[in-house]
Amino acid sequence: MKSNTYRPPYKQPKPIFIRPELLLHPNIPKPLHGLNPRTILGTEWWDEKRQEAYKKNNYCCWACGVHKLNAKYHSWLEAHEYYDYEYEKGEAKLIEIVALCHSCHNFIHSGRMNMLLDSGEMSIVMYLDIKHHGEFILEKAGLLVDYYNQTPPQKVAEWKAWHIVIGGKKYYTKFSGIEEWYLHYNG
Q1: Is the dihedral of CA 22, 23, 26, 27 positive or negative?
Q2: C-beta neighbour count of 18 within 10 angstroms
Q3: Are 104 and 137 a contacting pair, CB within 8 Å?
Q4: In which residue ranges of the chain is pLDDT below 50?
Q5: Where are the domains of the chain?
Q6: Terminal Cα-to-Cα distance of the chain (whole angstroms)
Q7: One-letter-per-residue 3-state SS of the chain
Q8: Whether the Cβ atoms of residue 22 and residue 100 lie closer than 8 Å to each other
Q9: What is the reported pLDDT for 126?
Q10: Which pLDDT score is estimated for 186?
């Protein structure tokens, strides 16, 4: 039986804010690979925090503003840990969990994206599309020059000093050095 009740078309929510500067977030230093809030604090904590991040901006990407249903590649958002890095101390302090579309998240993790390209797990077309997406967002925000002018830190802590700080507590690298890291990721 057909209802005579009028239903207005569904309108996807618009973002409350857009923070393209998130795309300038540096890659995670190698000593901190495999060390993250999900594994330290558990799935329940992680799921709660990422759901809060998704909801906070009406299920829109924090960096580009696309609603999850209109996002390219996946119709969902991905959570990203945003850190404040102090390279001399070897410290990454967790600032917040942010919600990103697949393209913005991969743009930030350019090191991982390069690895996926090299291994054949990502096509050159997808790689270039994601690079273009991020550069377009940064250019529109007047931040593209900042992206290309990023310089590596002058002083960096020793491998064993690296740690992340979550809620005031320090968690140290799980690898003794680059050799152990390499064997872990390259078997």
Answers
A1: positive
A2: 19
A3: yes
A4: none
A5: 20-186
A6: 62
A7: CCCCCCCCCCCCCCCCCCCHHHHHCCCCCHHHCCCCHHHHHCHHHHHHHHHHHHHHCCCECCCCCCEHHHCCCCCCCEEEEEEEEECCCCEEEEEEEEEECHHHHHHHCHHHHHHHHHHCCCCHHHHHHHHHHHHHHHHHCCCHHHHHCCCCCCCCCCHHHCEEEECCEEEECCCCCHHHHHHHHHC
A8: yes
A9: 97
A10: 85
pTM of the entire structure? 0.89
User: Which structure tokens are listed for 84?
Assistant: 């404040």
Q: Which two three-digit tokens encode residue 29?
A: 């230093």
pLDDT for the residue 7: 63
Please tell me the distance from the alpha carbon of residue 76 to that of residue 119, in angstroms, as a whole number.
25
pLDDT at 94: 97
Give me the amino acid identity at 111.
Answer: G
Q: Which two tokens stand for residue 16?
A: 């409350």
Length of the chain: 187
What the block records as the tokens of 182 is: 């390499």
User: Which structure tokens are listed for 154?
Assistant: 């002058």
CB 98 within 8 A of CB 80: yes
